[in-house]
Design goal:
five-stranded mixed sheet, single chain, about 40% strand, mainly beta, Metal Binding Protein, Guanine Nucleotide Exchange Factor, Chain A, globular, 2 helices, 12 strands
Length: about 140
């Protein structure tokens, strides 16, 4: 299954190849203060292939808070965060926002709350290595 998504204006777009096609897509509603405030609901397929296309890198900002180990890619034009990345041991990992999906049946999403309270930085980074998309590439802009 090829899942397409983007910010509202299309400046940040992604395509996630998810094979085999999922019977359901886990959609984790993060309980951190940032995700709660903007409605962040994330998914990943560790063996998937993610391509992120940025039309105008000057209209993208990165926001990191807390441990500063993840970067939220925010479109400065429309304010949407379609992708989050984390560079671990020289490799780029990512999750994508299910709210940015285009053409995916809502019934396919299995929404669950996610809380990482009490998780130490080492555990957090190891969880990302296991669970986040490990094959990530940016195209169309040098902004990453």
């Amino acid at each position: 299954m090829l899942i397409a998504g983007s910010c509202h204006c299309g400046n940040i777009a992604f395509r996630l190849a998810w094979e085999p096609s999922p019977r359901e897509i886990p959609a984790r509603a993060c309980g951190c203060s940032f995700c709660t405030r903007h409605g962040g609901v994330w998914t990943s397929w560790p063996s998937g292939d993610l391509e992120v296309a940025v039309q105008d890198g000057s209209l993208v900002s990165k926001y990191a808070f807390g441990t500063k180990t993840a970067e939220f890619h925010v479109c400065a034009r429309c304010g949407i965060v379609p992708v989050v990345t984390s560079r671990l041991d020289g490799r780029l990992y990512a999750v994508v926002s299910v709210n940015a999906f285009e053409g995916v049946a809502p019934a396919l999403l299995r929404r669950t709350p996610a809380s990482f309270d009490g998780e130490g930085e080492v555990e957090r980074l190891e969880r990302r290595k296991r669970n986040w998309i490990a094959n990530v590439r940016f195209v169309g802009s040098t902004f990453q």
